[in-house]
Specification:
The structure holds two protein chains of two kinds. By secondary structure, chain A is α+β, with helices and mostly antiparallel strands. Chain A contains 21 helices and 21 strands. The chains are: A alpha+beta, B alpha/beta.
Chain lengths: ~800, ~230
């Protein structure tokens, strides 16, 4: 037998190769998909690029979110490292100790952290980031402060911080690169003036534990902010799917079965996702180099602070490509890729509600089962809260395609743009629903969070009682003799932008003579000296002239009025220097008679929210030299027409005493943690909203790209630009409208469940509007931004077929 | 100067895409009710000529006159309005709006011209009947055959009763039987309404339906002898 004889038999006898099955086959298909993505020419790369861009943006945000724990920890660590150690304990003066005092100030709303240092010996401890402790008249500053002081904008601050700059604080001594910080040398610092003696820096105090209610908020916020990102990534891996399906149809011609084409498609998506992962990591690494330049609500960080937790980074690296494969396989379930380039929906399956509704219901059920807990007394069940919230939000995202399809099916008639939009939705609403699912979830989450915030803010806000309309600044004047104090007040009065000073010199006044039977101590009360306008801010004195005296009763009922009555008796004497421990005068008795003409009036809260009572005297009525241990209080009313009035006042204060604090009077004071959580949420939701806008825009442009030829044809027969523009708007607005309605319903439900969890009821429904308005604004923005690409795609180039 | 009695005439049209010259001094004219086939190999500039004639693309130089208007001097809005009102278009593929039914597709240009929906759909139904596809009026383009789709496109182009019908490879995606049927219906309907037809094709079989043939090659046009 010859070889030639054998050949035909070989051909016929050889068993047909069995179709490849199993994991190896699927991996092979995936690899082929990756090859197609790489070698697919311009179109393949365009698709890969779109997916990579979308996934990249999502991955960047995920990596940023995964870096938050490290960022917070790093900031906390550096903040603690520069806090004087053992400030609460007594440290004996030694060669290696120094005196330190806080001299923070505020410049145009930004806090400038200041510390005064006075070495006790030759080897004082240097704060982190500082090489040598600055001497008197010298200071070391943070780079941001150095820049500010050198700029024309910093001129006013330079007047306040006029020491010679001898060095720059290193990164180790700063919480963030944009922080305004200085250490200044001082030769006048004393423990009596409020300084602490320390031997080293680095506080060992534990961080303040987070309130369980805030913990719930943080947990829900993470879910609310990251769910849209996950949805966005799932959407991004489907970019350009229709074109890809048409291309894959060619594979059916050469014998690929439907499953193979699906896995090849998944391979393409996988490649796009991996590119996106790389792009996202690159974008993240690039972006974090500039993080120092960004300061949001006084928070900024060094690039190294933005380091993802390794486990979370690994999870992102694995989950994103896997999600790309899973989403593609899932999306292609209902699509049959046929040979000859025909792609049809296998069966026109109507979306069903029955399996979608249980998800949010189950989520709400879990949240309700999680029970109710009060602040500070028990830990929140994190798993139940997180899973319940995820289920509700995912349920909303799943209900949306059904809602869009069911609603679009009922829409009839209308003008041409409306008809084009509604018909498009009727034909294929999945893409539109996917595009807006992110915004729906974000708005639902925002509504729920806002409801909780609105309900609990009372618990985390303190009404200070201060009245920022009557005075704007509160000064803590240093202890001094009355004439010096008067000089200080005069200095402030002459400061630019100061309209009035509300000042009082205060001392104690007691009834002269021994303690009487039954008295636990000698009655005493406050004695305040001030001009008529100042006294008018502290009591309802009516008419007033210099020389007048008033007996002021406490109108709040907090003070036993009997003591005021027993001390401040018109026509009788009071003593200023009665020692409260011995009931004996401290030196020769300093006596003064309350004039018989003294009128009795009621007190009123001063602008700082304090209530003063006792004896009020105008300067001509008393020799202030009689007062023992007088202290001064002053508030400043500034001229609103002088924008830097507060800065001029602070400069005057710094000239008098660098340790003098100048505080802004404010009606409300927020809890620090509450404020941090709220600030963090604002930053994160801004990033999420930006991502959602980008997602919608990319989806819209992608959809327009798919319809490029059709758009050109429509233009060829004279369709107005406005007609197509309106159709794009309706096409976005309809799903978004439905999405927002769903978000309002779902978000309110979630909000009510969360409120119950934190023991609150009576939701504030007005919080619904801002997120809804933001969502609607986003739609308008996306439509506006997508108009230029729309105009571009309406060019006749799309008609060319050769 | 335009040739006497011509409805649409182009003179010395030049158009380049980058360094590639698509039209290099083309003269062209068509009279009312006349069917002119523009022939030529792929890439010869046939479609560019059609786009310039229809005011879709502005030529680099040269003029297009239409019924007393200098089309090349008109604004984009005016040219769009003219295309809506006076011109009809049939392309090779991808021209029907996939989400609209066939009836809605045919009614679309009428509605863009301001017609009420009911009136537009009544006219559309009539034209679907004339093009022998009234049975697909409720279907979407994805649910009908290529031949049916092309007839719907012809119905859409003729429904506005255009004075000029531009057809760019209208049978390019059809088999010969379907192609012939479409061409018969298209030219018959055009002649019935006295619409001029500019028919771009590279198939002599399709060009045979025309009264006259113009060949475009390397950006220049010349009349084919014996067809005028």
């Amino acid at each position: 037998m010859t070889a030639t004889d054998r050949r035909p038999r070989d051909r016929t006898d050889r068993p047909a190769p069995a179709p490849r099955t199993g994991l190896g086959a699927r991996l092979g298909d995936l690899a082929m998909g990756v090859r197609f993505a790489v070698t697919g020419g311009r179109e393949g790369w365009a698709r890969t690029l779109l997916t990579a861009l979308g996934v990249g943006l999502g991955v960047t945000l995920l990596l940023a979110a995964a870096s938050v724990p490290h960022l917070l920890q790093s900031r906390e660590d550096r903040g603690r490292a520069r806090t004087p150690a053992d400030a609460a304990q007594t440290v004996h003066r030694a060669d290696n100790t120094l005196l330190t005092a806080t001299a923070d100030t505020v410049f145009r709303g930004d806090t400038v952290h200041g510390t005064l240092l006075h070495p006790d010996g030759a080897r004082p401890p240097a704060p982190p980031g500082v090489r040598d402790v600055p001497g008197p008249g010298e200071m070391v500053v943070s780079p941001a402060l150095r820049e500010l002081l050198a700029s024309p904008q910093g001129k006013l601050l330079r007047d306040r911080l006029d020491d010679r700059i001898t060095g720059t604080i290193g990164d180790a001594g700063l919480v963030g690169p944009g922080e305004l910080t200085y250490y200044a040398g001082s030769d006048t610092l004393t423990t009596e003036a409020g300084a602490h003696r320390v031997a080293s820096f680095g506080a060992r105090s534990e961080a303040e534990p987070l309130d369980p209610v805030l913990f719930v908020l943080l947990l829900v916020a993470c879910v609310v902010l990251l769910t849209p990102v996950a949805l966005f990534i799932a959407t991004a891996v489907r970019f350009g799917g229709e074109r890809r399906d048409r291309r894959l149809a060619a594979l059916r011609l050469i014998g690929a079965d439907a499953r193979t084409t699906r896995w090849i498609a998944a391979g393409e998506a996988l490649f796009g996702a991996v590119c996106g992962l790389v792009a996202g990591a690159g974008l993240f690494l690039l972006g974090r180099q500039f993080i120092g330049a960004v300061t949001v609500w006084e928070v900024n960080a060094f690039p190294a602070d933005l380091t993802p937790v390794p486990a979370l980074a690994a999870l992102i690296a694995v989950a994103v490509p896997l999600a790309a494969v899973a989403v593609t396989l899932f999306a292609l379930r209902g699509v049959t890729i046929e040979p000859l380039g025909v792609v049809r929906n296998a069966v026109t399956r109507r979306r069903r509600m029955w399996w979608r509704l249980p998800l949010p219901v189950a989520g709400l059920g879990i949240l309700l089962l999680a029970g109710e807990f009060q602040q500070q007394d028990e830990a929140a069940p994190p798993f139940m809260i997180a899973s319940g919230t995820v289920l509700v939000l995912l349920g909303i995202a799943l209900l949306l395609p059904w809602a869009v399809e069911a609603s679009a099916a009922r829409l009839r008639g209308g003008p041409v743009p409306w008809q084009l939009a509604t018909r498009r939705l009727q034909l294929s609403s999945g893409g539109a629903a996917r595009a807006v699912s992110g915004i729906t979830v974000a708005v639902a989450g925002a509504i729920a969070l806002q409801m909780v915030f609105a309900a609990i803010q009372g618990d985390f806000m303190k009404i200070t009682g201060q009245d920022g309309r009557r005075a704007q600044l509160n000064l803590s004047l240093p202890t001094a003799d009355v004439s010096t104090t008067r000089q200080m007040i005069s200095d402030f009065r002459k400061t630019e932008g100061v309209r009035a000073i509300i000042a009082g010199i205060e001392a104690d006044a007691a009834r002269p003579g021994p303690r009487r039977t039954g008295e636990p101590f000698v009655p005493r009360t406050q004695f305040t000296v001030g001009d008529c306008p100042s006294l008018r801010e502290m009591a309802r004195i009516g008419s007033c002239r210099d020389g007048d005296v008033f007996v002021v009763h406490d109108s709040t009922g907090m003070v036993d009025d009997a003591y005021i009555g027993q001390t401040a008796r018109p026509g009788k004497q009071v003593i200023f220097n009665l020692d409260s421990r011995t009931d004996e005068p401290d030196g020769p008795p300093r006596l003064w008679t309350v004039p018989k003409t003294a009128r009795t009036v009621d007190s009123r809260k001063d602008p700082a929210g304090e209530t003063r009572f006792g004896i009020f005297a105008t300067p001509a009525a008393v020799d202030t030299g009689l007062l023992a241990a007088p202290v001064a209080r002053a508030m400043v009313r500034t001229d609103p027409r002088v924008p830097d009035a507060a800065e001029y006042v602070r400069n005057t204060a710094a000239r008098i005493d660098p340790l003098m604090s100048v505080d802004t009077l404010q009606n409300l004071q927020r809890d620090k943690n509450y404020a941090s959580v709220r600030t963090g949420l604002l930053i994160a939701s801004a990033a999420t909203m930006a991502l959602i806008a980008a997602s919608m825009l990319v989806s819209m442009v992608e959809q327009l790209r798919e319809r490029r030829r059709l758009l050109s044809v429509l233009v060829a027969f004279g369709t107005r630009r406005a007609t197509l523009g309106w159709s794009v708007l309706w096409q976005t607005a309809l799903p978004v409208g439905l999405g927002l309605a769903l978000a309002v319903a779902g978000g309110s439900g979630l909000g009510v469940a969360l409120l119950r969890l934190v023991g609150k009821s009576d939701p504030d429904w007005s919080v619904l509007w801002p997120p809804v308005a933001t969502g609607a604004g986003l739609v308008l923005l996306v439509t506006l931004v997508s108009l230029p690409p729309l105009w571009r795609m309406m060019r006749p180039d799309g008609l060319r077929t050769e | 100067m335009t040739p006497a009695g011509s409805l649409l005439a182009a003179r010395d049209l030049r158009k380049a895409y980058g360094r590639t010259s698509a039209l290099d001094g083309v003269d062209f004219s068509v009279h009312p009710g006349e069917v002119v086939a523009v022939m030529g190999p792929s890439g010869s500039g046939k479609s560019t000529l059609l786009h310039c004639l229809a005011g879709i693309v502005r030529p680099d130089s040269g003029t297009v006159h239409y019924d007393g208007h200098v089309l090349t001097a008109e604004s984009d809005a005016r040219r769009s309005a003219l295309r809506r009102r006076d011109f009809g278009f049939v392309f090779q593929f991808g021209q029907l709006v996939p989400e609209l039914t066939c009836l809605e597709n045919v009614a679309l240009p009428l509605r863009l011209n301001g017609a009420k929906r009911r009136a537009a759909e009544a006219t559309a139904r009539e034209w679907l009947g004339r093009l022998e596809v009234d049975d697909v009026h409720g279907k979407r383009p994805g649910e009908i055959s290529g031949g049916q789709g092309q007839r719907v496109a012809v119905a859409r182009a003729l429904a506005v009763r255009p004075r000029v019908l531009f057809a760019d490879e209208p049978t390019g995606a059809l088999d010969s039987l379907n192609g012939e049927r479409v061409m018969t219906l298209l030219t018959d309907a055009a002649r019935d309404t006295r619409a001029a037809v500019v028919l771009v094709t590279h198939e002599p079989r399709v060009a045979a339906y025309a009264d006259r043939e113009v060949v475009v090659r390397d950006g220049t046009a010349r009349e084919l002898a014996g067809t005028a």
